[in-house]
Design brief:
The chain is α/β, with parallel strands linked by helices. The protein is about 40% helix and about 10% strand. The chain is globular, with a radius of gyration of 30 Å. InterPro entries: DH_E1, THDP-binding, Transketo_C/PFOR_II, Transketolase-like_Pyr-bd, Transketolase_C. Its cofactor is thiamine diphosphate.
Length: about 800
């Protein structure tokens, strides 16, 4: 029952257990469930009394989660949602003390291993990584992928976690990855509320797992509501397993095994989960366990009461069918325990949870109280009767459970209010605050990326090599050679997407590679962008190196929720406890038509902080970036130029080895009059414009940032402005999209503003999507003529005598 000081559950095997052993297991299960309920009740009180900000709990689902936990083994994975606290306690994934530490947002990894205070309570995660970013032995851990709050969002990742087991079982080339799988025997457990099964991502993921036939076990906690909205507004027939019957596996078909069980029936739940997970694990068949008649005693969350929207009869029914109450009755009727025994157990559990909560609260406050005391003393040391400073100090001293923000805010205010009274004592406070700023940066703002020993910034820079025998070929063929070389080098690499396998993608970058490396490594998928990304996230979390292809950049919007909510925030929300080195490959920019020429860089930049955004101008640069990413461990989006696949490029002799460093801008052309910053397909347009501009007596300097995130870390743009003092950003996004970010980076971050002698300008696409046809492209996106005239107009403003107005 005990593992590393944690109370956990054991599987019930009636063929081997004596009745006394059976009783001990059941009583232990009840204790876990009861403690979890007390944690929910006390957690709600902590929020309502102001100690915590918000609370969401798993009350009412304790007993089914105990049953699920019995089937969960080392090496398995969970991808669930914020109702699974009992499962977390029963498996040892979390403890009650860690639960309260997270409720209080304790920023310590030791106190809250799931998120270091960065997520609200009941958002669980295990730490897959060592301090240096290297992998732990995931076969020796009961693994929990980091929860996200958007309901249903966990389903996309679940597909990939399960799919990894299929690859580990069926691809013998992966046998050497002993720390990630044992013959693919791992099951991916998913949980979701009944109302969230109405979401598209649920149906997309459910169908994908049925097609793939992977060991994915989906539990639906069905309490009949989605906050206040009853099932009749959520689900056809008000029954998710009823409408999913068409997915039931039949002889000669793929599909699911579907189970249905009441959430208050402990023996039936234990039996059902054992049967369901056995077939899932052994046969790699996905299963659905629809757990019905679940209750939610405290309502949805601390934001409101369910008495507002549930009828009196429903509330009475929920009280009677509370799973803990029903389990208690069954235990007494089955002579497993007496009422007196259970009363004693319950009192002990209440005391334990209360003491644990107090311990977590005191530990949370401990370091803050020390900082509070220091700030009070430092302010008093130079207040010298100043009423404003004295008031700041007294207010802080009179706040018994001050948060860190109140301590730091008091220090900052005292520094501001004493600006005209310099002293050595004030300098001490300033120095303390500056030191704390760095400490708090680490606490609250660090690890957007893993920054471990496999960081892309530690990859050796290897130049492309050419010889007299180097061939000129299409850009698509160069990419193909890059992928071929890397797939031969690293068995962990897999690629999948719409039309990627048999035809080698719509632009032939993977042509012939499925035939060479097999369908397990180069794979076609259905039209399902959310779960293509989720498939990649799950595989990457299990040690593989996936390339998830989204056919066109415009279609990235169909997967933006998964990319933003899950992948981009993964390292940050676990404080580098988990990573998913997924490469998302897509293509965009210049083509024709509303749906195949997108460059929504502003959307991407706003949504995908936590991914590297690579915007190669040609396929040689793309290949070098892929080579870097394949040798590192951070997620990235690579946007290839749609109109570049059939342009001729010289094939490097080391096509699978040379690397392009991320964040390193490149000087494409030197110039003296004006700096033009652009990337991707517009770079060729700017290069063409430069030729006519030279004839007009204007010399432009062209800089390609190559990656938008990170952007020009060596500040090449600033160095160029020191010479030209003028800036034009050319971008295919809408006005104020990607160009606004580039301006902010150059003018603010690089302090390029101080180097300008003219207003910086942007040349972008129109505010609408590009219409179809070459004329549509010409009149809606920056053209050679637009670039020439924009540059000329800027020179006209600066030197009107030398460059008279073109149109007057």
């Amino acid at each position: 029952m005990m593992s590393d000081g944690k109370l956990t559950t054991n599987q019930i095997d009636a063929s081997e257990l004596s009745f006394d052993d059976f009783k001990l297991i059941v009583i232990n299960d009840y204790k876990i469930a009861f403690e979890s309920r007390q944690a929910s009740l006390l957690g709600r009180k902590e929020v309502l009394t102001g100690k915590a900000k918000f609370g969401i709990f798993g009350d009412g689902k304790e007993v089914p989660q105990i049953a699920m936990a019995k089937a969960f083994k080392k090496g398995d994975w969970r991808s669930g949602y914020y109702r699974d606290q009992t499962f977390a306690f029963a498996t040892g994934i979390s403890t009650i003390k860690e639960f309260f530490a997270q409720l209080y947002a304790n920023p310590s990894v030791e106190a809250d291993p799931s998120s270091a205070g960065r997520q609200m309570n009941c958002h669980f995660a295990t730490r897959s990584l060592n301090e240096d970013g290297s992998w732990k032995d995931l076969t020796d851990i009961k693994n929990c992928s980091s929860d996200i709050a958007p309901t249903g969002g966990q389903m996309a990742r679940l597909v990939g976690l399960a799919y990894a087991s299929k690859l580990f079982r069926q691809n013998p080339e992966l046998d050497y990855l002993k720390n990630f799988s044992v013959n693919g025997n791992e099951v991916a457990f998913g949980t979701i509320g009944n109302a969230s099964t109405s979401e598209g991502v649920f149906f997309e993921a459910f169908n994908a797992a049925g097609v793939l036939q992977v060991p994915m076990a989906v539990s639906v906690w069905d309490d009949g509501y989605g906050i206040s909205v009853p099932a009749k507004y959520q689900t056809t027939k008000e029954d998710i397993s009823e409408i999913l019957k068409g997915f039931q596996r039949e002889e000669g078909t793929n599909g699911y095994e579907i189970f249905k069980v009441k959430g208050w029936d402990y023996p039936a739940l234990c039996e059902t989960y054992q049967r369901a997970i056995d077939v899932c694990r052994a046969e790699h068949v996905p299963v659905l366990i629809h757990v019905t008649e679940v209750t939610q005693p405290q309502g949805h969350s601390t934001s409101g009461s369910h008495e507002r929207y549930k009828e009196k009869d429903r509330l009475e029914w929920e009280k009677e069918h509370d799973c803990i109450l029903q389990m208690r009755k069954w235990m007494i009727e089955s002579a497993i325990a007496t009422d007196e025994d259970l009363i004693a157990l319950e009192e002990e559990a209440k005391l334990f949870v209360r003491n644990t909560q107090k311990e977590a609260w005191n530990e949370f406050l401990e370091s803050i109280k020390q900082e509070q005391s220091e700030v009070i003393n430092m302010i008093n040391a130079f207040a010298n009767g100043n009423p404003i400073l004295t008031k700041i100090s007294n207010q802080l001293a009179s706040t018994p459970d001050a948060l860190r923000r109140e301590v730091i805010s008091s220090a900052r205010k005292a520094i501001r209010q004493s600006i005209n009274s310099p002293s050595a004592e004030r300098d001490i406070l300033i120095k303390w605050y500056q030191e704390q700023a760095g400490i708090n940066e680490e606490k609250y703002n660090s690890k957007l990326f893993t920054d471990g020993k496999e960081s892309p910034f530690l990859v050796n820079v290897i130049p492309a090599e050419y010889s007299e025998s180097s061939k000129m070929l299409d850009g698509r063929e160069l990419l193909n050679a890059c992928f071929d070389s890397n797939f031969g080098r690293d068995q962990r690499l897999v690629a999948f997407g719409e039309d990627l396998g048999q035809i080698g993608d719509v632009n032939q970058g993977f042509s012939g590679l499925q035939a060479k490396y097999g369908e397990l490594r180069v794979t076609d998928t259905g039209i399902r962008e959310m779960t293509i990304i989720g498939q990649g996230i799950g595989l990457a979390m299990r040690g593989l190196r996936p390339i998830a292809e989204i056919q066109y950049l415009d279609y990235l919007l169909f997967a933006l929720n998964i990319l933003s909510d899950d992948l981009a925030s993964l390292s940050y929300r676990t404080k580098a406890g988990q990573k998913a080195p997924l490469i998302v490959r897509t293509r965009g920019h210049r083509l024709e038509g509303v749906w195949h020429s997108g460059s929504p860089m502003g959307v991407i930049l706003g949504a995908l902080r936590g991914l590297h955004i690579c915007v190669p101008r040609n396929m040689t640069q793309a290949a070098g970036m892929y080579n870097t990413l394949f040798r590192s461990d951070e997620p990235a989006l690579v946007i290839e130029c749609l109109n570049g696949y059939r342009l001729k490029e010289k094939l490097p002799d080391n096509v699978g080895e040379f690397t392009i460093p991320l964040g390193k801008a490149e000087l494409i052309k030197t110039g003296t009059d004006l700096t033009v910053v652009t990337y991707g397909s517009t770079l060729r347009i700017v290069e063409e414009a430069a030729e006519e501009l030279e004839q007009l007596g204007i010399s432009i300097e062209i800089i390609d940032p190559q990656t938008i995130l990170p952007f020009d870390i060596d500040q090449l743009c600033k160095k160029s402005l020191q010479k030209t003092n003028k800036l034009l950003v050319v971008d295919e996004d809408v006005p104020g999209g990607g160009s606004a970010f580039i301006l902010q980076q150059i003018l603010e971050e690089q302090q390029g503003y101080y180097l300008l002698d003219a207003q910086p300008k942007t040349l972008t696409a129109k505010a609408h999507r590009p219409p179809y046809g070459s004329d549509g492209d010409y009149f809606s996106k920056p053209s050679v003529d637009d670039v020439i005239e924009a540059v000329y107009a800027m020179m006209n403003e600066s030197k009107p005598q030398q460059f008279p107005d073109l149109f007057n």
